[in-house]
Design a protein that fits this description.
By secondary structure, the protein is α/β, with parallel strands linked by helices. It contains 22 helices and 24 strands. A hairpin with an 8-residue loop joins strand 20 and strand 21. Helix 1 crosses helix 13. It starts with a strand and ends with a helix.
Length: about 650
Amino acid sequence: MLNFALYVSNHGYGHAARISALVEELIQYGVFCHIVSKKPDFLFANLDQNYFAQYKRSIDFGVVHGPNLTVDKEATISKLLDLFSRRNELMALETEFLREKKIDLVVCDAPYMCFDFAAYTDIPAIAISNFDWHHIYSNLFKDEPLLAPVLNTIWAFYRKADHFLRLPFSTDASVAALGGGEKCGLLARKKNVYADLRKYWGLGDSEKLLLVMFGGEGSMDLDYEAVCAGYQGKVISTNACVKAKNHILVAEDDDFLDLIYNANVILCKPGYSTLAEAVQFGKFIVYCPRRNYPEELALIAGLTNYPNCLEVESLQLSAKQWKTLFAGIVIKPSTKRIYKNSNRDIAAKVMAQYLKLVWHDAKLISVFDLGTNNLNYVLFDLLRKKVVHRVFLTTGLGRNFNNGKLHAGSIRAAKKEMQPLLELDNCLDSEKVLIATGVNRLAENATDILHWVLKKFNITGKVISAEEEIRYVKSTAIALGSGEEASLAVDIGGASTEFIKLHSHFLDKGHSLNLGLLQLLSKFGDDVVSAKREISLCLKRLPYKQINSIIGVGLTFTYLAAVIYKVNYSLKDELHGKRITLSQLSCLATAIAEKRVTEYLPYLLDDSYLPILKLSSAFCISLLDRFAASEIIVCNDGISVGYALSQQKRRKQTKINA
């Protein structure tokens, strides 16, 4: 699994909001994201807790605000000099952090010192922003010649960035220190489903909503009572002092994305996050710029061709003036959005650039192993025979399998789960293949999802035979074999289980049993005793006698090890080579039977996995009993790795024959 560190500027909420949007997409690709930010937790509440960690520290501060969000120059200079006085201390702390967490890529939005940290630790660094702090400071302090060495150093830090993704609401001047960069689309928080706040507040569908928001830092001098008196509808704000009857009070940590989505008009100062989240929905924006803040020139320039916006010179308007202003607003419907949300595309650009920087000479292959309940994806370098990245997804494809057909609802759910990963991978320069196993061998409509993958993503998919799967299990497991002739590789799936003896003097073609966890769950439900009886009967049919070690290949064993060793599932790479003992399995099985599972719950993907966990532990106990073994060695690599290895061998042989 890849580990990215994302450094967030400690100025306002906008940087944290858009990094949160980026991280949400990177997590879809299975990247573990280490976010360095002191900003409130609610800005990252949308993220999967298994795939990110937040470290409450800051590497910069931006500017110090005075009244009405004006810049306090003297205080800003003082803090800037103090920050630079701690440069060596920060370097020591952050380089140790980058090494300890085994960071593969640094992404900065856009604290300048981070590029120095990354360069020192020889880790590539990507900048993403609509402005750089050299631009801000050089304008604010143009009459402060003694600060020139500091500004020159900031410029030099930015020049150490390996790549720059340039966001909208920027100008050539606002990102001069970072260079022209690669222009990209809008990075802004979004959701699949938005709350109907009118219904929640008991309002009619035609009720007009005005949202007043000024970002996460400081406040503006605004007569809220006058605004409420001038607006024909409800006014939403975080100001608890407003007494107007048409005012709706919300908390600072409420979901402002829902608020923006439901609002008709937004009254704000120019700020990237506010503007980006508003324009993606086509909302009408009334803004009052701060004349002494350099970034706002770029932000306002970005609104030049946006039809639904209005600049006001001052917020000091009377109720009558506000009424006239609001009455004159005409929201222009647009058939084409000027700004579209590009979160996934930007995440793909980050991934593609990482591969270009680090794996530029690799021969990459993307293998999607679509099983009965899971998708096992691996990005593999054929030249080095090395895994670059891996992802496991729960698809539930085989759920409700009946009469030889995959359930239509299960196919739709699997497509929805797979799509983000497929879209991100589709932007990477790699050979691509999907291999289908388990229930796909039994389903007469298995080609439905294969045709969808081919049509939408141009990825060839094929249902592989049990014999092919056994070969890939062998290729995957053989590296963990002890060298003894009596090593047995086992891959427990949702609808079948494959066995093959490693390092054998005779040619073992392996065995595939029509026995899997989802199949057992469907047949026996919570009746583990009956399930174990069937497992034992099936295992007795195997011809293997003397077995000294068992290698458990794939997700079933990795997942068991994660629960037993109480390791966050996102850190599953650490489980490769771990040993699952009979004693551990027995303790787990007893705890589940007695419903003492509290200590294991944090390591489950969700509570619905308990039945599968119960069956997989029972299966492994029966497996150890069958061969009088005491432990199973975990092979985190599934057959997707085995397939990649087989391709590497095939191409090598073809080259020799040629």
